[in-house]
Model the fold of this input.
Amino acid sequence: MAKIPDKTETIENVESPVFDPSKATEQVRAVVDQGVEQSKQAFSKLSSDAETTQKALESTLEMAKTTGNEVSLKMIAALRDNAEAGFTHLEALVAAKSLSECIELQTAFLRKQIEKSAEQARSLQAAMMRASEDMSKPIKDIFEKALKERKAA
Done:
């Protein structure tokens, strides 16, 4: 029986907790094992995400190369058409017999070139838009997948 100083009550059969080292070791081991397992899962997810991102970037770069080539070929074709039209027009101007015929040829040529340039610009714009959509699709898909997984978690 223990007596509390300056109190009239006594405490009987008070037991203090006993430190059991074997239980402490088991608890520490369980916590460490759980931490290791969580680390393995996190590393596995990180590795998987990195691999997915790498594939998306490779796909994007391949698409950029393909669409870049397509746009370059369209530009070269437009330049070739414009050069051929210019030489044809020059031949027609040289063959003209009067000033009025030269002015008429020049006016028709300019009108045709403006229409052709507008058509070429629309074609290049469409190719560029398609290229940007194609190049951004893999990254966009991965981003959306990551958002879905984050919302699910």
Q: What stands out?
A: The mean pLDDT is 83. The first strand starts at residue 2 and ends at 3. The helical segments are 21-95, 99-152.
